[in-house]
Amino acid sequence: MAPETEAPARPVTDSGKATAPRTPPIPAANALPPLGEDPAALAPIDPQDKRVVGGRADINQLAPFKYPWAWEYFLKANRNHWTPLEINMAQDVQDYHHRLTPAERHVFENVLAYLTTSDILAMRNIGLAVMEKMTAPELQIYQARQVYEESLHTWTYQHCIETLNLDQREIYNRYRVVPEIHGKIALSNRRLNAVLRSGLDMGNRDTLHEFALSYLFFAGIFEGCWFYNGFTPIFALQRRGLMKGTAEQLQYIMRDEVLHCGFGIRVVRQLIQEEDLQLDPAALRLLWDEAEAAESAYAGYLFQEPMLGYSADLHREQFRFIANRRARQLGLEEPFPGAANVVPWLDEQVNLRKEKNFFETRVTEYQTGGALNWE
Ligand SMILES: [Fe+2]
Ligand SMILES: [Fe+2]
User: Fold this and answer.
1) Where in this protein does the record put region Disordered (predicted)?
2) 225 alpha carbon to ligand 1 midpoint, in Å?
3) For residue 210, which phi and psi values (nearest 5 degrees)?
4) Which ligand is nearest the CA of 253, by number?
5) What does pTM read for this prediction?
6) Do residues 16 and 335 make contact, with C-beta atoms less than 8 angstroms apart?
7) What residue ranges in 30-122 does DSSP mark as E strands?
């Protein structure tokens, strides 16, 4: 896989000039009467009837595609297949108990504590709030894969926690007792709960706007910034030869998250264009500011004591730098102009440069291993 690249910036806020307003409300594809009851249901589908939400084409028919890029995402996702059991964690046990300083253990445990809760939330978001609103099968199929991947990520953290013999009750409860971790989760829960209801009226412009903002938050910030940049403290340990097994696990997760983020941003752009949505600038500003404040508090808690090679200030600045990238990919203005790339090695982590070692050290043979293609 190539390093993460910038998507061409096409301003979505101009979409209103190009697209017809959405009139009259159309039935959801999955609300069509069964075959035999409606003569119109016997007609072949026109892929142009597909929409991100409120489409009229039969949801059970994959092709012809309206969104071929969504199918490509599904194929790409299937090239990054692994299980946490395949990565050797033996040295991590030694590192954690004998080589990490107390400050480094604090960082490691709290990153893990945040991630455990966060990935379950990600699974619920895409599986329960987002996927059911989609009315094109090629979108739902990638999201179904994404739901599986989020649960795989949760398994990965659990595997690390078990291997290192950490106190599960303590780790999993940490977000409930540490305000700086809770702040990020609470913010995400709020965005999730706003669109979690089934039967949301997507013909209502305010509801649609809220849904777009929620999905934008999850794809662009939660996955695109908080996950993408969230592994960095452990990669900083990896660069010093510490916790390399955990870091490798996170590299696999990061590859998934890059795709989740890219796909979600693409869907949001498509939704904005199809529905002729104008995102409220004040709502967007609030989105970025809340995310920055939560991330900044979290960074301050992680790095109460300095850690060799990384710090709270580096983490905060890198958040702002990556946030600008996500905004450009969304076709939006940069929220933090001038933010610098203070962790230039971060993007390289997507590349899994140690693949050779991975194949040497893997402990099980995976049936589709021959199909792996590390571009
Ligand atoms: Fe995930
Ligand atoms: Fe994800």
Assistant:
1) 1-43
2) 12
3) -65, -40
4) 1
5) 0.86
6) no
7) none
Which numbered ligand comes closest to the C-alpha of 151? 1
238-244 long-range contacts (CB < 8 A, ≥24 apart) are 239/309, 239/345, 240/308, 240/309, 242/95, 242/99, 242/100, 242/104, 243/92, 243/95, 243/96, 243/100, 243/108, 244/91, 244/92, 244/95
User: 344 preceded by cis ω (within 30°)?
Assistant: no
Ordered per-residue pLDDT tens for the chain, 375 residues: 445 644 444 434 333 333 444 444 444 555 555 555 666 667 888 899 999 999 988 899 999 999 999 999 999 999 888 899 999 999 999 999 999 999 999 999 999 999 999 999 999 999 999 999 999 999 999 999 999 999 999 999 999 999 999 999 999 999 999 999 999 999 999 999 989 988 899 999 999 999 999 999 999 999 999 999 999 999 999 999 999 999 999 999 999 999 999 999 999 999 999 999 999 999 999 999 999 999 999 999 999 988 898 999 999 999 999 999 999 999 999 999 999 999 999 998 887 654 444 444 443 333 343 333 433
Query: What does the block give as tokens for 316?
Result: 């905060």
CA of 71 to the centre of ligand 2 (A): 17
Burial class (CB in 10 A: 0-12, 13-18, 19+), 107: buried
